[in-house]
Write a structure and sequence with these properties.
By secondary structure, this protein is mostly beta strands. Helices cover about 5% and strands about 55% of the residues. The chain is built from two helices and 19 strands.
Length: about 325
């Protein structure tokens, strides 16, 4: 019975992912600004590299969603203007499907009296593939029997597709707070699967998704501590997901926080996170999601590891600097 239940849930996950193509969730979103918003690319005076690995619903075993992301971005003076270039590579797997994304980003930054304003554009490729292996054999009182998996439009078949992806990002930032707005898959590229035997073509599409994010830096009475609440609101204009987080920093080097993820129907999860700066510019963080939605029966927890490294090639390695990514 457990195997049938797991198969049923996994089948739902695969079909929902194929129909909607939602972007992966990140609990450490406040440290992944350049990954989720191309407007922030090159906003800092450092070259930044970011790696994040997220495993959702760990109890599901094989077929659970796993997302790996790597990005590099750097500031560039182009014709006397503050600009930035970046590249993001993402591998998102769930069930039988796999999505590989490669995005190239460009951003322009303009200094204002009290802060900075930036605009960014992302262009890239989405490689979507699905390679299902269905076990349709069932043992009953009359012995084992099975049914064919071909010719049924409700059962996904193997195919691959490569499409162009377009995104944008804008932000406004001061020493105390920032606000950002970004969008991905704006061109809503289609995924086509041709069944040669039947002469049919199935069309799916990438759903456009928008993110509104922000954070505020609160100086505590003790100057060694800083409290930084943040949020990100995700929506495809049909549904939304809201993440809220409060992170306490100690000596700007150690941090711990608590987060909440809310969907239109329920509280999806609670998040516990923490991290530290190991050496100058090298930071490591971890986030644990405790799922509270109906998915709790298959996977109580989700896990996320993030590693960031920032350096300035114009500075001596023994000089101390701090990425403004952490406000």
């Amino acid at each position: 019975m457990k195997n049938y239940f797991s198969f049923f849930i996994l089948f739902i996950l695969v079909n929902l992912a194929a129909k909607a193509q939602e972007e992966p969730l990140f609990s450490n979103y406040m440290f992944l600004r350049t990954i989720t918003n191309p407007g922030f690319v090159g906003a800092e005076n450092t070259i930044n590299a970011t790696f994040c690995n997220r495993t959702m619903f760990a109890g599901f075993g094989e077929g659970k969603p796993v997302t790996s992301t790597f990005g590099v971005e750097a500031p560039v003076d182009l014709f006397g203007k503050r600009t930035g270039f970046g590249i993001v590579m993402m591998n998102d797997k769930i069930g039988f499907q796999q999505l590989v994304k490669v995005d190239f980003s460009f951003a322009y930054h303009h200094n204002l009296k009290n802060g900075a304003l930036g605009f960014g554009l992302a262009l890239g490729f989405n490689s979507y593939s699905i390679d299902p292996t269905w076990n349709t054999e069932i043992s009953g009182e009359d012995g084992a029997y099975s049914w064919p998996t071909t010719g049924d439009p409700l059962i996904p078949s193997s195919f691959e597709d490569l499409d162009l992806g377009v995104g944008f990002g804008v932000y406004y930032e001061t020493p105390q707070y920032y606000l950002g707005l970004s969008g991905s898959n704006l061109n809503r590229a289609t995924i086509s699967s041709t069944k040669e035997a039947e002469g049919e073509v199935d069309y799916l599409y990438y759903s456009a998704e928008y993110k509104l994010s922000g954070a505020y830096n609160i100086e505590m009475p003790d100057p060694l501590f800083d409290l930084r609440p943040s949020f990100v609101l995700r929506s495809d204009l049909a549904a939304y997901m809201l993440d809220m987080n409060a992170t306490m920093f100690y000596k700007k080097r150690y941090w711990a926080g608590f987060g909440l993820r809310v969907s239109p129907k329920n509280i999806a999860s609670f998040t516990l996170m923490g991290g530290t700066e190991l050496v100058n510019g090298l930071n490591v963080g971890y986030a644990l999601d405790i799922n509270t939605s109906s998915m709790i029966y298959g996977g109580l927890t989700s896990h996320e590891v993030i590693i960031t490294y920032s350096f300035n090639i114009d500075r001596k390695r023994d000089m101390k600097y701090k990425s403004v990514r952490y406000l």
